[in-house]
Amino acid sequence: MDVISSPNACSVTTGGNLWRNKHSTKNIYHASFGVLKASQHKRTSQMRYNLLRLQQSSSNDHYKYIEDKSTYKKCNKKYVVKAVSKPSFDLEPPASNPANILVSVKNFLIAAFWFCYPYSLIAQGLSVISSSFLAVENLSNVSPLFFTGMLQAIIPQLLMSVYMNGVNQLYDLEIDKMNKPYLPLASGKLSYTAGVFIVASCLTLSLWIGWKTGSWPLIWNLVLNTFVWSAYSIDVPLLRWKKYPLLAAMCIVITMAYIFPITLFLHIQTFVFKRPVIFSRSLIVTVIFMSLYSIGISLFKDIPDIEGDKAFGVDSLATRLGQKRVFWICISILESAFGIAFLAGITSSYLWIKIVTGLGHAILASILWHQTKFVDLRSKSSIISFYMLIWKLMYGAYFLLPLIR
C-alpha cells in the first residue's frame, strides 16, 4: 500500500510524460528509460525500507499488546481487590446511630403523650381524688389506708382514660384528618398499629389491675366504662352511638356524672373504710353538678368539629342548630352547674365552707362568662381554646365539691 500510494513515484511518472511531449521520440525514450530505471531502483529500496518498518512495527505492536494485556490484568486485579476488601460505611442504616434511635424514641413518646389527651388524663386523676375525698368524714380518715385505696383507683382509671380516648381516635381517623389534623394519628406522627397496641395494652392492664384489687365498685367502674366508650366509638351495627346526639350526650353524662363519682365513692366507703353505703351531701351535689356540666361539655365539643361531622354524616346538635346557638346553650348549662354548687356551698352549716365554696364557684362562673366575650366562632383555634378553659374550670370545681357538707 505504501508503494502504490507513494507521492514520489507519482511525481516521477508525471514528469516523464511532460518531457516526452516537448522533445523528440528518441531522446524521450532514453530519458524515460533512465528515469524508469532510477525509479525502479528507488521503488525497490522503498519496498525494503517499508518491509523492515512493517516487521519492526508488528514486533513493537505485539510487545505493546502483551504489555497492555498484562497491565490490564494488573489493573483489573487491583480493582477487584479494592471492591472486595474495602468496607462501605455509607450503607449503614440510619437507625444504627444511637442519636437517631434516641430521637425516634423521643418523637414516639411525645406522639403517644398527645394521643392520650393530657387534659383528659388530668381530669380523670382529679376525678378520682375528688370522689375519694367525698367519703372522708373527718381528718382522721386521711390516712395511709385512704391514700393506698386512692392509688388503687387512680392507676387503672388513668389506663382506662387512655382506652376511652384512644379507641375514639382509632375509629375517627378519617374525620380527624379534617377536624383535628394536629392529632398524632391524623398527622401520621403515630402509626395506626402503634395506636391499636397502646389502646389494647391500656385496656388489658386496667381491667387486670382492677380485678387484682378485689374492689367490686372499682371493677364495675372499669367494666361499665369499657362498655359505654366502646359503644360510643366502635363502628359496628347497633354501636357507634356518637352519631346520635342523644346517645352521645348520654355516654358522657353517664360516665362523668354517675360512673366516676358514685363507684369511686363506694370504693373508698365500702372497700377501704368498710362502711355501709350512705350517700353524703357532697356526693349528691357532685352528681347534680357533674350532670349539668358534662351535658355542657358533650354539646360544646362538637362545635369546632361541625365541618367534618357534616362530611361524614355525624348528626350532632351543632350541625342541626348551628354553632352560635349551641354555644350559648352550653354557656347557660355550664353557668347553671356553677349556680347549683354556689347555692349548695352557701347553705352549708359551716361558715368557712360557705365562704370557700360559695366564693370559689362564683369566681369560676365569672371567669367563664367573662371569657365568652373573646370567643370567635369563625376561628376553630378560638373555639378549642375556650373548650380547654371549660375543662380547667372543672379542675377547680373538683377541689371545691368535696368541701360541701
From TrEMBL:
<dbReference type="InterPro" id="IPR000537">
    <property type="entry name" value="UbiA_prenyltransferase"/>
</dbReference>
<feature type="transmembrane region" description="Helical">
    <location>
        <begin position="381"/>
        <end position="401"/>
    </location>
</feature>
<keyword id="KW-1133">Transmembrane helix</keyword>
<feature type="transmembrane region" description="Helical">
    <location>
        <begin position="278"/>
        <end position="300"/>
    </location>
</feature>
<feature type="transmembrane region" description="Helical">
    <location>
        <begin position="350"/>
        <end position="369"/>
    </location>
</feature>
<feature type="transmembrane region" description="Helical">
    <location>
        <begin position="108"/>
        <end position="129"/>
    </location>
</feature>
<dbReference type="InterPro" id="IPR044502">
    <property type="entry name" value="AtHST-like"/>
</dbReference>
<dbReference type="GO" id="GO:0004659">
    <property type="term" value="F:prenyltransferase activity"/>
</dbReference>
<keyword id="KW-0472">Membrane</keyword>
<feature type="transmembrane region" description="Helical">
    <location>
        <begin position="246"/>
        <end position="266"/>
    </location>
</feature>
<feature type="transmembrane region" description="Helical">
    <location>
        <begin position="192"/>
        <end position="211"/>
    </location>
</feature>
<feature type="transmembrane region" description="Helical">
    <location>
        <begin position="149"/>
        <end position="171"/>
    </location>
</feature>
<keyword id="KW-0150">Chloroplast</keyword>
<keyword id="KW-0809">Transit peptide</keyword>
<keyword id="KW-0934">Plastid</keyword>
<keyword id="KW-0808">Transferase</keyword>
<feature type="transmembrane region" description="Helical">
    <location>
        <begin position="326"/>
        <end position="344"/>
    </location>
</feature>
<keyword id="KW-0812">Transmembrane</keyword>
<dbReference type="Pfam" id="PF01040">
    <property type="entry name" value="UbiA"/>
</dbReference>
<dbReference type="GO" id="GO:0031969">
    <property type="term" value="C:chloroplast membrane"/>
</dbReference>
<feature type="transmembrane region" description="Helical">
    <location>
        <begin position="217"/>
        <end position="234"/>
    </location>
</feature>
<dbReference type="InterPro" id="IPR044878">
    <property type="entry name" value="UbiA_sf"/>
</dbReference>
<protein>
    <recommendedName>
        <fullName>Glycinol 4-dimethylallyltransferase</fullName>
    </recommendedName>
</protein>
<comment type="similarity">
    <text>Belongs to the UbiA prenyltransferase family.</text>
</comment>
